[in-house]
Amino acid sequence: MSVNLTIPTQQYDPAEIMGALYGPGILGLKGAFTREFAKELGEDIAVLYEEALKRPGGAVGRGPKRHYVEIHPEDIRGFVELATHPWVKAVCETVLGPDYKIVEIGFDVPNPGAENQPWHRDFPAPEDTVKGRRLNSLAFNLTTVDVEPDMGPFEIAPGTQWDDASAFEHEMFPPKEFYSRYEERAEQKMPKMGDISVRSALTIHRGTANRSDKARPVLVLGVDAPGANNHERHDLQVTKAFYEKLPDDLKSRLLCRIVDELEVIVQGHTIEGLMMGEA
Ligand SMILES: O=C(O)CCC(=O)C(=O)O
User: Fold this and answer.
1) Which of 37, 177, 271, 276 has the fewest beta carbons closer than 10 A?
2) According to the CATH classification, is domain 15-270 in 3.40.50.360?
3) d(CA 179, CA 199)
4) Could you tell me the pTM of the whole model?
5) Centroid of ligand 1 to alpha carbon of 110 (angstroms)
6) Dist. CA 148–CA 160, nearest whole Å
7) What is the pLDDT of residues 210-236, one digit of tens each?
């Protein structure tokens, strides 16, 4: 008896996704969203940034003229579209497995006058990566502006997510003597509005000096495999009303508190080595 089997097809190739995240440690998708989507995101971030700057401790300094702000999913239009984008879902499922969880949403703003950051990881490599040789978290980035070379592009040293950190300060900051290794490999990223990228936050990277008169705000979405525990550095919150309206498959993806009213986030993810004095 013959059985008619259909060859399974996938919109996004898991081997390509795994190859990129385990190889260079970064992957992008051009035109994932419309320019209008990125523009609205930029408008929402501008409001949130202004509010955060007024609150003591509302924005974390990440170097001169540079901040990070953790936000609430419902503070931005488009959270659902972002979190349920087929590419975002495919990348998360492929690299982190079927039980991945969203643990962080925030944004970085390198302003005019921001300087080169030290090369760094966003947190120390966990045992799962160091000994288990597996990535258990990802950071998605969505630019809200077209990035030009003078706007302090994000710079990354592909393949360095596997570098031994025993000589790094706080297991995150390689000594200056190692910089030639990162500089030789460095790639500057110049995404346009609507593009999205994903990286391991362990791939050594830095924000570069912004010599333009424009800020370069970029959204960050943090996603974990079970057991990665990055949620401990964050405080993802949604209101009951927002949660109830979410698609069912997104509800189970949020590692968050469900609250009656949103609480002000006490910014937790400070990276001491990036402060370099006042932001
Ligand atoms: O400038 C960027 O896009 C990233 C900045 C960064 O790596 C950080 O503040 O940890």
Assistant:
1) 177
2) no
3) 20
4) 0.95
5) 8
6) 25
7) 999 999 999 999 999 999 988 888 889
